[in-house]
Amino acid sequence: MISDIAAFLAPSWGPLRLLTSSFMLAAIGTMVAAISAMILIPVLSKYLPTDRGRAHAVDSAASVGKPISAGIIMIGIIAVAAFLFVPFDMRIYCSMLLIVAASVLGYIDDKSGGLSELTLGLCDLLLACAAAVIIFGFEPAKVWLPFTADILTVPAWLHIPVAVGIIWFSINALNCSDGVDGLSGTLALISIAVLGLLFYMAIGHIEMSRYLLLPFDADGYKWAIVCAITCGCLAGYLWYNVPPSSVMMGDAGSRPIGLLIGILVMVSGNPFLIVVCAGVILANGATGLFKVAMLRFFKLSLFSGIRFPLHDHVRKNHHWSNSQVLARFAMVHMAVTLTLVSILLKVR
């Protein structure tokens, strides 16, 4: 919205042209989101529900009584900032509405003490279906894959179910990773920052996309601004969530941010980016979902010697502190993501 107003008024006052620059919009949006989070989270946290602890989670008693569901504040900041700083785009605005809906669902889950797994799973499935339709409609999609320069046209009957599955797993993987101070926020920030750079410098850049043999997306810079705003808000939240935390995002934050990561991956045109940019999130959270699914539906007991999420395993079995888990998982996530992105872009 700001860019449209600036473009209209720029002939009257030249400096307003700065606000039509996608780089400036991303930079200002990042700062506004970060400062808003740093101001609003401590002010509004007294109105949030408090944590009751999690059954079977390692050291869950340490979180009891802390404000939870700060995600509802964060998602509000992200949605408003996206409306202000992202040039008009109906897909993005509708995606923001879905993310707000996911946050409200998470808030209800946090406040009620926990909805049933079936209820949450079905709601996540509905959100994933709606997101897939918003992204693609029912039209064929252009897809680029690892290790080939070919750009494929995939029919809707195939790519929409794939999108639903990836988005659903992204929601739940990040949610399962939210068990250590600062962990889910830091991992999400790294993933979204890398996706933002891909949108701004490759997918949404006509010359670079041609050089890298990627399908050009004229709206890529808009998604890059969304990524920048989200990273700013996450940074503001992490100011209060690093060990020892004073507030937690809860399901009201982890679920919508996981939804956003899934949406960004599918908009990029390469579904394998969920592994490339969120590999540690999947390994930490989604492997536990796979283990439970194998046991419940096929009576197969896999990884019986490993506790999931993995952050609980290393805390319980290897006696890592919360700070060690955060630092080591973040370092591995950065190293793996940057390595895989380099391979993905150059080996084609």
Describe, in short, the structure shown:
The protein has one domain. It is globular.
The main β sheet shows up as: 2 strands, antiparallel
Order of helices and strands: HHHHHEEHHHHHHHH
The level of helicity is 55-70%
Strand content: under 5%
Structure class: mainly alpha
Features:
13 helices, 68% helix, two-stranded antiparallel sheet, 348 residues, mainly alpha
Structure description:
By secondary structure, the protein is mainly alpha-helical. The chain has one domain (22-346). Helix content is 68%, strand content 2%. The protein contains 13 helices and two strands; from the N terminus they run H-H-H-H-H-E-E-H-H-H-H-H-H-H-H. The protein has a two-stranded antiparallel ribbon with strand order 1-2. Helix 3 (71-85) packs parallel to helix 10 (251-268), helix 5 (117-136) packs across helix 6 and helix 6 (156-176) runs antiparallel to helix 10. The chain is globular, with a radius of gyration of 20 Å. The chain starts with a helix and ends with a helix. 47% of the residues are buried. The model has no long low-confidence stretch (mean pLDDT 90).
